[in-house]
Every structure is written in C-alpha cells, then in structure tokens.
Design a protein that fits this description.
By secondary structure, the chain is an alpha+beta fold. About 20% of the residues lie in helices and about 25% in strands. It has one domain. It has 10 helices and 10 strands. The strands form 2 sheets. Strands 5-4-3-2-7-8-9-10 form an 8-stranded antiparallel β-sheet. Strands 1-6 form a two-stranded antiparallel ribbon. The protein is globular. Mean pLDDT is about 85; it is low at about 1-10 and about 360-365.
Length: about 375
C-alpha cells in the first residue's frame, strides 16, 4: 500500500490525548546497551556527549553543550588523557533555527563569527570552512561541531512527545523517503496520512551506562528534564591485542540519543553499534557491520545493511561524501552520522602509534 503523502514537508500536529506509556505497535528494536565496555590495554578511546537543552521551555532557545576527549590505555592498562574540547552554542528556534552564539575551548574565533547564520541547512559546510585544520585532522572539535545541526534537528523530538499542554505549535516534518524510517509506505508517513499526527514514540528506558563501567569512562552530569543527549564512543586497537602484527585495526563505535521527559523519565530514541576492521597501511575498510540496538520504527533497521557499501573504501573522506552518496529509504540519517565518524579512525590510529594526540593544536583555527 502506498501513502498519498507527497514527497515534501508536511505540517504535523501533536497526537491527541495524553502521552502513551506502551510502545506503538510499529516500534523498532529495543535492545539498549547496559554499560560501557572497559577499554582494552593498548587501545585509544574517543568519547563525546552533546546535550540539547531547553531551559526556557519548548518554545525557548536551544542550548547545546558538547564535550569530547581522547584517552589512551598503555599495554598495562594505565590510562592517559590525550586531549579534551568543549563547545557551547545557543540556537533561536523561531522563525527558523538560527545560530545565536557559538564558542569552543580551545578557542576558535572563526567559530564565533558564524553567529546569525542558519542552524540547519549549510551549517556543516560553514563549520568546516571556519576551522578546516580541525576537520582535516579528524580532531575532537570536528566531531562535536559535525553533530550541531543534527542536534538542532532531533531537538524537535521533545515537541512531538510531551503532553499537549507542554507542546509548542505544530511543526513541519522532514520530507517523505528521506530515510528508511520516513518511507512513504512506513509507520510514520501512513499514520500522518491517516490522522494528521505523528505516531508517538515510546522508547525503552535508558540504562545507566556508567553504573557498571570500568575506570576512565567518565560520568556526564544528570540530564535535565525536557533535555536530549547524544553520547558517542569509539575504540581503536590492533587486531590481536597490543602486540598484534596483522596490520589490521579494530574499531568499534557506538552512539545513543536519549530524552528525559517532563516527568523525569529518560528513554532512548536511537542507538547503534558499529564494528569495523581497517587495514592500517592504507586505511581501507575490510569488514563493517552496523547493529541497530534501539530505533523508533519497524522500518528503520533495514538501513543497517547500507553500512556494507563502505567495505573496500578508504577512511578519511566520509564526512564530505556520505551526504551525497547515502540517501533515500535504504539509509538511516542517524546511522549515516555514525558512519561519518569512521574518519576519526585516522586520528586515533596516529594516537595509538605515537601515544600522543594527533589533532591540530592551532590556537585560533583561523
């Protein structure tokens, strides 16, 4: 059955009635990770959190707070922090999402000059142009900055799921067929066509990833109510352990998007794990598997197979190329964001070999 919803933005109203507490019948996988795995001896770990906060309510400005760090574990399992960055931004929601402030530590004055530009379309390109050295080096700052427009996009989740008296006015949904979850004949678009409203997502409760984690993983601050968090991890090690001589790198990357509602309950919206084998001599991907852990709708997991398209390709240009080559119903917007971070394997490999942070140390980024 084909939906008659046009392949263009549609105005979506809030679902009627109180927010449900049981999953929609068309829900996707609900198997979240219970903890962060311990870092292996002789490995490098990159972690990041990006909080999407609404301190003035759902009609107010969006506050974005990002932190990321690299750490290395020597062959004896001792940890050394190599580098850390923070990013703070504010975004005005109306009449269209607009960047109000942007700052980082270490400071990059070129970023501050982006205030006033659109916070969605074209922002990634503007960020890359503002601090090209950070992106060329696949540095920590590039990881956080690359997530900013996505954070603005997914911030609308709160607008859709809160009870009617806490929601702003209806908003415009993404185009049909932009990804597997938004396919014309899928759960979301058919529900919109039938009712004029999005089906309400009820994600699984978010396990505390840090409760049983090993040392060095850090614990982010408590997520405020009506706040979202994107949390990332990437581990890179040598196949066969610290003394491995196969010339192959093992990379595991994961991310989780969660939301803490007005009642104080934190639920997961998206969660993926990615595992790759990369030939260290030329950074070619030998094997790559994406595992959907939590996704909104039953159509979403079909996109996981798209990760296999990158086998045989070289790490280093995915942030530039994936937007053009990974689109449509065979893909997932959020899996694409995880695939983009495979570029970071180059920086983490350098850190693994040298024991030093490989990112740019330019004081200004200009």
């Amino acid at each position: 059955m084909q939906s008659r919803v046009a392949k263009e933005d549609v105005t979506v109203g809030p679902p009627a009635g109180p927010r449900p507490r049981t999953p929609h019948q068309g829900h996707g996988p609900r198997e979240p990770a219970e903890s962060v795995p311990e870092a292996l001896p002789g490995s490098v770990r990159r972690t990041a959190t990006l909080d999407i906060l609404r301190p003035d309510g759902l009609d107010g400005q969006i506050v974005l707070r990002g932190e990321a760090r690299d750490a290395r574990w020597d062959d004896g399992g001792e940890e050394a922090v190599l580098a850390a960055v923070t990013v703070d931004a504010t975004v005005a929601v109306a009449p269209a999402p607009t960047l109000v402030t942007l700052a980082s530590r270490p400071a990059r004055p070129a970023l501050e000059r982006l205030a006033g530009r659109a916070a969605l379309s074209g922002l990634r390109g503007a960020l890359r142009a503002a601090v090209p050295a950070d992106f060329a080096d696949a540095g920590l700052l590039a990881l956080v900055l690359d997530d900013l427009p996505v954070a603005v996009l997914i911030s609308g989740y709160a607008n859709a799921v809160e009870p009617p008296d806490r929601r702003p006015a209806p908003y415009r949904a993404p185009p049909a067929d932009i990804c597997s979850g938004w396919r014309s004949d899928g759960t979301m678009m058919l529900t919109i066509a039938r009712t004029g409203s999005l089906p309400v997502l009820v994600g699984p409760p978010a396990p505390d990833l840090d409760a049983r984690s090993g040392p060095g993983n850090g614990r982010p601050p408590a997520l405020p109510r009506q706040g979202m968090r994107r949390r990332r991890r990437m581990d890179v090690s040598r196949e066969g352990g610290p003394g491995g001589s196969s010339g192959v790198l093992m990379a595991e990357a994961s991310f989780r998007d969660s939301y803490r509602d007005a009642a104080g309950d934190e639920q997961i919206v998206h969660e993926y794990v990615l595992r790759a084998r990369v030939r260290s001599s030329d950074m070619t991907i030998l094997d790559l598997v994406a595992e959907p852990r939590v996704l909104p709708w039953q159509e979403c997991p079909a996109a996981a197979a798209s990760a296999g398209r990158l086998v045989g390709q070289r790490v280093g240009t995915f942030r530039e190329r994936l937007r053009e080559t990974f689109s449509g119903t065979s893909t997932c917007t959020h899996l694409n964001d995880l695939l983009r971070t495979l570029d970071d394997v180059t920086a983490l490999h350098r850190a693994l070999e040298s024991g030093e942070h490989a990112g740019t140390t330019s004081p200004t980024g200009d």
